[in-house]
Amino acid sequence: MSTPAKAELQKTSLNAKHRRMGAKMVDFGGWDMPVEYTGILAEHMAVRTHVGLFDVSHMGEIEIRGPRALDLVQHVSCNDASKLAVGQAHYSGLMTAKGTFVDDLLVHKFSDTHYFLCVNASNQDKDYAHIVEHNKFGAEVENAGGRYAQLAIQGPRALELLQKFTSVQLAPIKYYWFTRGEVDGVQCIIARTGYTGEDGFEIYFAPEFAEKIWDHLMDAGQKLGVSACGLGARNTLRLEAGMALYGHEIDDTTTPWEANLGWICKVEKGEFLGREKLLMQQGIGVARTLAGFEMESKLIARDGYSVLEGERAIGTVTSGGPAPFLKKNIGFAYVPPEVNKPGTKLGVAVRAQMAAAKIVSVPFYKRAK
Amino acid sequence: MYPADFRYTKDHEWIQVSGGIGTIGITDYAQHSLGDVVFVELPKTGTTVKAGDVLGTVESVKAVSEVFSPVSGEVTDVNSELSTAPEKINQDPHKSAWLVKIKLADAGEASKLMDAKAYTEYVEEKEKEQTA
Q: What pLDDT score does A7 carry?
């Protein structure tokens, strides 16, 4: 049922803390990470209604510096980083020459000559190698994951909780902007970003302070209904919010057009890796696009299950499971574009049964503004 | 933790035999490993199963787990409450959240399974592997 922990698993600086808290630990892409503390449902609901605290120190950081730092970022990623102001971040894709995803990432602009990338944990070394390989600009590329711990504070009361520990005024920080400042006396990058569909912040700082900041946030958060949250809730929250997960909705066989991520694919910005292929696919049209669906049966669609339209197998579930806040069972699947319209009836092969589902618009969940 | 009058399988099912009827459920270890249970699928009464056959499915938020029959026989009753309250499996796995009752084809079959002491040791060994 579970994989025994292996000696070679990487650990965040909060590993012992998670174990002391009784978290259930799993091997997540080579990292020994908490999947849940009290239970995924309660943790999920805490983030939707109060505030949740996540250790996401496994996430990778790559820093790019130098006079041509922007040229390198522009060359390897599909969004238009020239549009970023200092203190602004955006979601983007690290591209192969085929226009598919090496990874998805957040690009933060520290200055005209310094960009800070947050990438998926298990892709960090691959991403770094890819960026270095395509660095024809003489930029300095640093694989900086070891220098940062990262905590995500997410939920309607995240601002109130984090504000207790910083003199930086958090309310004026706009969504997908960041600033640098002290949290609990520790120098941090404070970004109004997240992977839950809620308001919230992600803070990056030196790992030796992780336990102190974690403890203080948890203690002060008691009155605000804080819950420590594991990767289980992180996954159900991002799915409910309609966000892609690398290795599921996107990978090195999928393009931004197929993944409904055209909004991060700025072919008009000029040359970048994969642009030719992406222009070609834009002209021809895609053979499949990512669809969100909800189950009309009680059965739960899971990753890898076949999706049918009538008798015809048309795709595979990329992520599927319960949406705890919506109290529905939902999922993503790639289907032919002509099928991908809200209301289209699908079948999902669940064990020996055909379970009824229908395509719905994404995101499944959108928070009230 | 694990009732002395139950027998246990390596797949973490329990069975309590009384008067030729075996009541079957999943153990506390199983519910804890699964996490929040959100869906249970059980066989129809009258279904005949052999020991080791899939008896049903228990799904948590993150995982699907098949339940294997510890014994051979005929399903005489299923716990229909679990279809509307699957979370009972987390709350009371050894009692009110039983899954099915089976009329035993072979009265001696269950006694070959682990007793509470052997199962407790088995589970402790599993937990050690996980924290190693």
A: 59
